[in-house]
Amino acid sequence: DADVTQTPRNRITKTGKRIMLECSQTKGHDRMYWYRQDPGLGLQLIYYSFDVKDINKGEISDGYSVSRQAQAKFSLSLESAIPNQTALYFCATSDFGHRDIRGQFFGPGTRLTVL
Amino acid sequence: EDQVTQSPEALRLQEGESSSLNCSYTVSGLRGLFWYRQDPGKGPEFLFTLYSAGEEKEKERLKATLTKKESFLHITAPKPEDSATYLCAVYQLTGGGNKLTFGTGTQLKVEL
Question: Percentage helix, strand, coil, to 5, in chain A?
Answer without folding.
Answer: 5, 55, 40
